[in-house]
Amino acid sequence: MSLNFRFAVVSDLHIALPHTISDHPSRFHLVEVSIPALEIVLENLEKLDLDFLLLPGDLTQDGEPDNHTWLAKRLLKLPFPVYVVPGNHDVLSLLSTGQNVGLKDFPYYYQQFGYKNPEQLYYTCEILPGVRLIGLNSNQFDEQGKQIGCLDEQQLAWLRQVLADIDDNELVLVMVHHNVVEHLPRQSQHKLGRRYMLKNAPLLLQILRDSGVNLVFTGHLHVQDIACDRNVFDITTGSLVSYPHPYRILNFRTDKEGRKSLQIESPRVESVPNYPMLSQKSREWMGDRSVPFMLKLLTDAPLNLPIAEAEKLVPNLRYFWADIANGDALFDFSEFPPAVKRYFESFGAIATDGSPKLIDNSTILFI
Questions:
Q1: Which of 58, 67, 247, 317 could lock 89 by a disulfide, CB 3.0 to 4.6 Å apart?
Q2: What are phi and psi of 328, to 5 degrees?
Q3: Over the stretch 185-208, which tens digit does the pLDDT of each residue have?
Q4: Pairing between strand 171-175 and 131-135?
Q5: 122 near 106, Cβ under 8 Å?
């Protein structure tokens, strides 16, 4: 089958109606722009001949019923199908608290967006002839009610069965909130990075690889990055409410010889009402809040710098995370001590041979 279609990905919307906005002085993202930014994106997408839209989680600020209700109603007005999965901000507990929806409530808000069976927290559907989507739930809770990013055994068994039943000619797309491939150096090993990864990512990757699934769409990390682990691409999309306010437009193509490719472009929202220079504002917003995060990176393993030494280096790292979020970052920290220089430069968009590998925002992947 010759597959040719176009779709979009918008991640980590963090929708917050004005009366629900809460003030967290240390947050890196601007929920204040969530609704106007989304409206601009949807207006742009409606001008395109899209086949569908994917929203890989963190749809709302903190799982507020009003925000879920608003978003579901807004998505119904679009001229193309939309599919969602829950993020950690969408479901703060297993059951509803009244102020926040529970995990088991989430599918009932989005029965028109993948969850035809709202009793189940994951789903599969044929979204186009020859194209199947699998939406997974990566939000679990331990006995103490602590949120964990992983897939439960029942879901994994279901996934294996779904993949076993799929026609060999079907293209399978997977959407899940937590990352399944590392997007940062040693992300799964570092205490600041591993909370963004699926705890049992290696198991999921093996299941997908065994079934010939190549494309996974994630969010959560709020960065523009494309990573690959043995033929499985994890395309993570930055947050609509964080610098650089990106979204993705993707074209899947099959050429005359049957070769399949995925062309990716990443527009940004540059301004919204009250924020005419949104990109500059949010970059500075992130830089203003960067010191505690940078100190942790410097004083934790593997660098383990003394606090006094770390504090001297922090000013040079003001925009480090913003540059990571922007994608395709290349760093030069030649003024840093050798070990620190190597560590921070390793976060750049470089291939194993040391050459630039600028694929995070605009590229063509061959599937």
A1: 58
A2: 55, 35
A3: 999 998 889 999 999 999 999 999
A4: parallel
A5: no
The span from the CA of 186 to the CA of 184, in Å, is: 6
User: Under 8 Å CB-to-CB from 19, ≥6 apart: which residues?
Assistant: 66
**Model confidence pLDDT, tens digit, residues 207-220:** 999 999 999 999 99
Q: Domain ranges for the chain, please list them.
A: 5-265, 278-345
Contact predicate 266/277, CB 8 Å: no
User: For 295-324, how does the pLDDT look when each residue is reduced to its tens digit (9 = 90+)?
Assistant: 999 999 999 999 999 999 999 999 999 999
Q: What is the pLDDT of residue 55?
A: 99
Instruction: Look at strands 147-149 and 82-84 and give their pairing.
Output: unpaired
Alpha-helix runs per DSSP H in the chain: 34-46, 65-75, 106-109, 153-165, 201-210, 278-288, 291-299, 307-313, 320-326, 338-345
Q: DSSP code of 23?
A: -
Is 215 in a helix, a strand, or coil?
Answer: strand
**Average of per-residue pLDDT across 106-111:** 98
Could you identify the residue written with the tokens 């901000």? 89
Place of tokens 């969010």: 219
Q: Are 24 and 232 in contact (CB under 8 A)?
A: no
Other beta carbons less than 10 A from residue 141's beta carbon: 16
Distance CA 326, CA 153 (A): 35
CATH top class, domain 5-265: alpha beta
pLDDT of residue 281: 96
Rounded to whole angstroms, the Cα distance separating 27 from 16 reads 14
Question: Tokens 């109606």 appear where?
Answer: 17
Mean pLDDT, the chain, rounded, equals: 96
Q: Using DSSP bridges, classify how beta strands 225-229 and 232-236 pair: parallel, antiparallel or unpaired.
A: antiparallel
The Cα 320–Cα 295 span in angstroms is 12
Q: How far apart are the first and last CA of the chain?
A: 15
Contact 249, 265 (CB under 8 A): yes
Q: Output the pTM of the full model.
A: 0.97
3-state secondary structure at position 270 = coil
